[in-house]
Each structure stands twice: as structure tokens, then as C-alpha cells.
Fold each of these.
Amino acid sequence: MIKYEKTKGLTDKLTHYCPGCTHGIIHKVVGEVLEELNLMDTAIGVASVGCSVFSYEYFNCDMQQAPHGRACATATGIKRVLPDNPVFTYQGDGDLASIGIAETIHAANRGENITVIFVNNAIYGMTGGQMAPTTLPGQKTTTSQSGRNPALQGNPILISEMFAQIRGAAYVERVMMTSPQNYRKVKAAVKKAFTYQMEKRGFTIVEILSTCPVNWGMEPIDAMKWVESDMVKYFPLGVYKDVAK
């Protein structure tokens, strides 16, 4: 009897992510949802620039690479040409909350019927650990070596809270990937986001608090604990908008 089988939503290619990074686990969630909702043959994903730049090699569906920050603009074009196909972006905080913030806001404001998987690890991972738009106050990075000072560098951007105010957004939720229990919550949020898209309700975004042990200078277990002890204080979990409620 088969007790566990890898989701068909992912290819057999090994991922390149660092030990303790949860990108691979989040990929697994998205792959399972695509498979369980029978979307694999029609889904089109848009890969961002960042640590997840090679996600087009991991998801077992049609994928398109977008320029840095332009994933939602690319997804908009795809969705308008193929309105019945499920279209999603997979973006990190540097890609979405920095260079891509305008494209993402306007896609939400227009109510583009796409799903955004937003991975927030509070740092630029791929390029060496610089301060990101979501870096916490006091958090040390290669470009904030004394810790982020809000008086000089501004406050972290609260993406879920911001997007909940946009009329075109249909569903906004923040979850975290730190345990099997939270895995189930992440999966439920991602599944609802794709379901709403297929029901043509509008723009959906799931923000997932994630880890970056290498650039945080932590062991993987400590990084998981830091998400739960520090990140959640600044980025509270929960559903920020649900048009069905």
C-alpha cells in the first residue's frame, strides 16, 4: 500500500534551495493544489527573479519567466489571452514588494483574476542578504549592519494589510511555513486562492512567511523559531480580506 507519493504537480528535478529554506516546501504545496484541483493541464505559472527564479523547472505545468518585478504584468497578459486558464505568479519579497510593487498593486486594483504566491523571508536572499522592503526594524543585513532603522530606512511594508484595502482584491491571507500544522494552513489558503480564481472572483494573494537561514546567519531550526517569535509580531497571521465573508 502506498503511504506517500510525490505530487505530480512537481517535476522530478532536484531543487537548488539552501538547507532550511522553505521554498521547496511551498513548491510542494502549490504542486499538490494544482494536482488536487485538476489544474495541471491548464495552469500557467509565472516565475519571478530571485531565489525562486528556477521555479519554472520545478512546477509540472506551463511556466513563463518574467523580468524582475514584472510577474503580475506578465500574468495579466497571459490571463487576458487565456481567461479560462488558471494563472499564478510565484514571487519573493524583493521581487514583489520592491521593484514589482507597482505592477502588483495595479493588477490587484484592476481585479485581475490571477493568484499570487508571495514568499516573505524579510531579506534579499539570492543577491547576498541585503535589506528588503520587508526587513524588520533592528534586523541586521549586509546593507543594514547595525539593524534596520525606521527613522532612516523606513518601516517594513505590510503587504497583506495594504492589499486588503484594494477593491479588486478578492482574497488576501497571511500564513507561515514553520511546521506540519502550519503546512496544512498554507495549503488551505493556496487552495482557496486558486478556487476563487476559477470562480472568477478577482485578484487573490497568499503571503507566506518563510525562512532564509543562510542570510539570517541561523541554523534551520532556529530560523523556524525566529519566524514564529519575531516575524509574526510584525506580520500578524490571518485572513485580511475574503469577499465571500
Amino acid sequence: MTISINKKLKPFCTYDYRYYVAYGGRGSAKSWSIARILLLLASQSKIRVLCTREIQDSIKDSVHKLLKDQIDLLELKGFTVQNDTIKHTNGSEFIFTGLYRNITKIKSMEAIDICWIEEAESISAMSWQVLDPTIRKPQSRIFISFNPRYEDDIIYKNFVLEKPDNAYVVKVNWNDNKHFPAELEAQRVHMQKTNPELYLHIWEGELKKNTEELILSGRWSIEDFETPDNVHFYYGADWGFSQDPNTVNRMYIAEHSEYGSNCLYIDYELNDRPYGVEGVLTSTSLNELPNFWNRLPEIKKHTVKADSARPETISHMRQNGFRVVGAIKGANSVEEGIEYIKSFDRVIIHSRCVNTIFEAGNYKYKVDARSGQITRQIVDKNNHHIDAIRYALEDCRNGKVDWSQASTILSSMIR
């Protein structure tokens, strides 16, 4: 039989790992795909599947109905759906139970081939410590699906922050689902525009955030907008080093917008070490940097404000035809730059600027570890595009700059 599943979950059909973990946001077809995979496996050979979650007060709280619906939809033969179990004529069996009130019962379970933990973000550390060694049949596997919640949740810590070698861990979101329905698309777009911080959690599978920690909270939104003709573009760049990416952003200021009379639109980005993408080991080399920058529309027609801490890189880019000027910066320039960005009626980020969106939703103030109070100290993390934006707007914040003076400063730094 051939069935349709989310392509990122195809490895769940193999025996290459002990743990198979799918996490992400709403509409990704995680549960739908895992249900189909399990039903396919159960129809091919005799297996015993434990379907569990932390709290299951009744069978209605389980994936029982999801499995039943898939049996009906796919018109699978040989399955018998009972009130609290699902069985196949070849001896396969699906068992449904909660962990919290049945932990002793689960400890005594034997011969489990596959355990599926649904909504695993709510699994307690105690439940996990009991369940993991209980699934001990040779070649037994544990399937885990969840929407991330907090960084210290046991499943997130064990499989996302500290991924073990014997685990296949994949993030899947709405844009990985080729059957993503139009009804959900309308909901997604509405939340993207009206509540981008909640959007990142619900639809993009990011952790929940305390909005009071977020520096740009309530100041920004995500949209697919058309850049108008005859606007003045500002370009800003932050240099990559070691694990940090090379980033560039293009933006413009609109005096008349549905959000107000003073809005910042960010319509393009470059990032050579994108967030959430594995396998990118180093940032772009100095020799390749001009080619990298040329991907940004019209960049050679405009001045680019860049971090002045790398004068040799600025000089190299000038030699390759770019109009690059080092940011003046100065005392409190970070704080003042952030306050300037926050002074706009709205910051609108185009949906294609995925790394800028990630930073906007993750750029934070430091939280005091003892009191839990939110300080005004800015955490130096998730800020490479934010820095590029600050540099680009430095002249708008400070007023017109004497470029001859700026060039003199730069020349002295290069010598």
C-alpha cells in the first residue's frame, strides 16, 4: 500500500534509531502522519503499540479517534476498532493509557514494540524516567510528537537541546505539509499579522515566551507586502565571525501606512548561517563575501552601514564595488538604537525574512535569576539582524552625518 505522509517523517518507518521525535507547530500533519505510519506497520506484521500521553482521563483524550478516522479514510482492511483498543487480524494491537495515573501499570507492561507519546511537551520528568526503560523489547522504538512549550521541559531538553546519537529528531511545520488546508491558512495569516510572537509559538514551533522579556514585543508584525517604487532604501550589515553569521538587511521608512504615519518596513535579508538549519559550519569567506552580498537587490546602488569593528572587511568590500561605511556607534549606541527601532509605530517584516523574524521574536532583556525580575540589560544573543538594522538606521537616529569625517575615521582605523 502507498499512503501519503509528511516527507520529513519517512524515517519513522525504519529501525535505524531508538527514538523518533517530531516537533513543531500547528498544521504540520505530525500526528496524522505518525498515525498512518503505525497503522501501515501494524497491518504488515504483528506489533504491539502503546499510545500514551501524560494525562488521559478518558479514551476521548487519546489518539484513538485519530487512528479510527485514518482507518476509515484509508479504507484499511483487517482492523477492529473497540471502545478502548484497536486490533488487527494479524494480532497487532493498539493500547491507550495515560502516564500520570497509570505509571505502576505501565512499568509492568511487556512486549511493547512501539510506544507513541503524543503531546509530549507535558510529560513530567518522573513519567519519562519510568517509561523510557519500560520499552525494552529488542528493536523496540519510541515515537514522540509535540509542540514545544518551555526550554526546561524534559522532552525538549533531552531531544532538542541535547540530541542523543540514537535519535532521529526533526522539526516540522505547516509549510512542510503539502495538504495544509485553506481554512488553517486563513487562521495562520491572521495571527502572523496581528500577534507575531504567539504566531511563532503556535505555527512555527518556537518556545513560549514571556512577552515582557521580549524587547520588540507588540512593536512588529509579519506580512507579505509589495515594496513601493521610489522609496529610499537603508542597508545595514553585521559581519560574521566563528559561529556568527554574516547578515545584511534592506529596509525603508513609510510615512503613510495602515499602522501609522511612521513605520519601518524590512523587505530583504541575507544570512549565511540561518537559524535552525544544521550543517552550515562556517560563515562566508572574505573572498566569497562580495558574491554573497550581490544576492540582495540593488545593494550596489546604495550606501551600506556596517559594523566598524572590521575595517579590513569594509575595505575589501569597497574594492569590490560596494559603498560601505562603518557605523560610528559610540556609548549606549545599542540601547539608543533599540529605542529608535521601538519608536516606529510599527516594524513590518516581510515573511521571506525568516531569520529577522526569528530574532524579532527572540531578542530579550535579561531576567534576574534570583528574583525573576526583568532587567533593562539586553542579552547579547539573537541580534545579528537587529544589529544590521540598527547600523542601517544610525543616521536617521543621529541626524545627518558628515561623511568626510566618517571616511577620515575609517581611514585611520585601516592604517
Amino acid sequence: MIIAVDGPSGSGKSSTARGVATRLGLQYLDTGAMYRAVTWSALEHGIDLDDTEAVAARSRDLDLSISTDPGRGRFVADGTDVTEAIRDPRISAVVSKIATNLDVRAELRRRQRAIIDDAQPTGGIVVEGRDIATVVATDAELKVLLTADTDARMSRRKAELAEGAVTAEQLRDQIVRRDADDSTVSQFQVASDGAVEIDSTHLSLDEVIDVVCRLAKEADAVARDRES
């Protein structure tokens, strides 16, 4: 089974997707972290992020190792464990320049599809990002668009960051501007065909996971009926 979870920053898609994967015994892929890893690598190599060709070349050359174990997510870029480093505010502030680079998106989508294909024989995978259902895994058995209002998304993102890491104004700018930037290359704020939209504004994480797991079991039952 492939479960695709799309949504804007702070909607809770990472925590939800990881929780669903853990509960259902599936693998888990955070595609947003892949863009962050490319961002980290480009900065480490002193590449001008406005140089789209150079950044795209770096994304293709990057040796990126990804753990799809929902309990032990690890990202290793060119031999360096960047699991924590890619969450640094300096990465968050500029990752949109990477995420809106069409050649980088093409390269990472290729890698994402390969990871999804590799996961199929082992039972399946929960993949979260911004264009998973619409582009990367259009054949997913379950497609979810997870949304939340801006205040809820800001609150959740702030809880993930170290105290004082960013101001409220910087946080709002990152979330609102990131949505605006990414909307130029991804329709992540519009439900794809067959997708279920879940507004998580007033739901706890466990409640959202419950809903997605129920939908996954229903989708699996439908798929089994078709096969029989």
C-alpha cells in the first residue's frame, strides 16, 4: 500500500505520516527533508542558491542515504549525518529556493519514486510532501490532503524549534512565504483526484492518525475486493 499525505508547512503531515507508518507497520518517507538535504549540501559547497543550474547539478551529484524506518529516520548526505542539521532555521529560511528549482524537483521526484518502488515488496510506505498524490505517487491507494489554519500551523512549527530560534514575525514569514513560493510549482493546497481532505486545526495528532489509519484500512479492503 502507498499512502500519500500532502499539505502545507505546519499542517502536521510529518508527524501524522510517521505515526500512521508506525501504527500500520509501513515504511515512511519525508520528501521535504530531501529538499532540505540538498539545501544543506549546496550551502556547504558554497553554491549560490540563485544559480539554478549549479544547484540542480549538486542535487544530482549528492550521495543521499535515507532511512525509511519511521522510528529511526536518518538522512546522510555525502557521508555526513544531517538529520538534525537540516532542521536548522538557516535551512528553513532558504529551502524554498531549492524546492522551486524545477530541475531539482525532477531529480528528487525520480529518487522518491525509486524509494516507493523499493518499499512495495515489503508491505508499503507512507510518503508525505507537497505533490505526492498529484505527481510522485498518483497511483497511491490512499491520498490525503492535510490542512490547518495559519495560527495552528505557526504554533506547531514553533513547538518544533528551539526556544528563541526565530521570532513570531520570522516564523509567519517562513510559513506564509513558503506556501506562496511553493504554490508556483506545486498544487499542494488543492486536493487531487480521489484525495480526502482533513482539516487538523482542531484535532489532536492521535485523532488525525486515527482518521488516516481508518481510511487506509478502508482503502485496503476496497483494493482486496477488486483483486478478488
Amino acid sequence: MNARIGVLGASGVYGRHLLPRLIAAGYRVRALVRKPDAAASAAACGAELAAADIFDEASLRAGLAGCEVAINLATSLPAPGEQGDFAQNDRLRREGTPVFVRACREARVSRILQQSIAMTHAGGGDAWADEETFHPVSEGIAGAAIAAVRDMEAAVVESDLDWLILRGGLFYGPGTGFDDDWFARARAGKLRLPAEGDDYVSLVHIADMADATVAAIRRWPSRQPLIVADDGPARWRDVLTYVCAVAGSNPPQPGGRSAMPSFRVKNTRARALLAWAPVYRDYRAGLVR
């Protein structure tokens, strides 16, 4: 029988796409969630439910008992387009991940997979980046987020467990809220380019992220960070102009808030090691209305 997999943060959008794919692939899945009675989608697709919190090592240890693989998808982010406490998510990554790692070790989980973000490779302008390319980014919310991500990854890499890290591009697709927000603002004539729109963004459709995760579990290229993104990073100007064209509105004007530095990443390693390729190869394929 296939391995039992514990998924922390299973009720988030990533988890809601991942769990049914894992179960369809034959894995036994245990959803570790703070509120099991609010995890209807996890229960409906056949997952076991266990109450656990990333800051509560005892609950994690109990929830992970008997699992061969643990996946950490826990995040605490505001909805797209809303103001929120990003520092809370930084704390979750920086302080919660070591708790997760300790609980995995104590529960004798042999393998851990950590969700991360490809924005950790930001700051290179138009230059392409791979898993070994890093630039100093220290300003604002993005700088704080990248610093927290690097601490999070260090907690995983420096452990004595077998690990994988998947650095996802910016999620879009059903349930993520990003493309819904873009189209809503486009139709209202309120969509703006971040600054002049010249920076690159590397996207990944949430379905492709989930498929890559299943491939990673199946193939397990041990102790590797992998960038999971589409094939065509694009300038914000091109992405949001396309959104406006599909929405039937005027092209977006410059001057909007720039929330993240430019990042243009390659998915070459993930393609090779996972035998995976994105179904939605660029934003044109995925931004369908």
C-alpha cells in the first residue's frame, strides 16, 4: 500500500487542490488542520482529519504519528487585494517551521516536503534565476517575507531529515483569488500596473503546483530545492494588459502599488527531476474567462 502522508495546512487553497490528487494517486492522506469541522473538502475527498497547529508540537506529533511523509503547506496570508498582517505569516514561517520539523522527527516521519516561494529569487530585474541564484532584497514587506522564507528553508535543510522544498511561483487559478481580483478590477476600470509594469512575475497555476507536488512525492529527488513555475515568466504589463483585453476594458495604466520585486525564474530542474511540465505553460493558457 502507498505511504500515509500528513498534510499540514490542508484546508488552504493549495491543500484543496493537492489532497484529491494524492488520494487519486493511491496515497493515504491525513489532513492536519486547526479546525477539523471546517475542513469539509478534505473529508469529502477521503482524507483522515486530525486537529493540529504549527505552533503546538504535541498536536503535530500526534497528528503525524504513522505517517511516512509530511507536507507543510501552512500559511497565514491576507486575501489578494486586501491589506493584512504579513508579519504574522513571516512569524509562522520563521518560528513555526522548526516546530514542524521537531514534531516530524519525534513522530519518526522519514520525509518532509516544505512549500516555499520562488520570490526568494527576486531582485535580479530582467535576469533569469535558477535554484542557486539569490539577490539581496531587504526593503519593505517583500524583503521581510524573503528573509523569513530563507529562515524557514534553513530549518528544513539543516535538519537531519530527508527533505524536498518546492518554491512555487505566484499562485493563480481557482480559489487563489488573484485572477478573480484582477478581472474584477479590470471590469471596474480600476486595474493598475505595479509602478510602470516593467518587472517580471513568475506565475504558476494552482493545478500545476498540485500536480508537481504529487510528482515530487512519487519520484522524491532527495534534498533538492525545486522551482515550480510556468514556462513563460512575463512582465506585469503584459499579464495585466491581457487581463484587460479578456475583460473587455481599457489597458491598465501605470502607477499602482508594487508589492514584490521582479523575479524571472526557470523551472528546468523541476521538469527534469520530476518528469513534470506545466499544463498551463503561460498566463494566456491559464487566464481563461
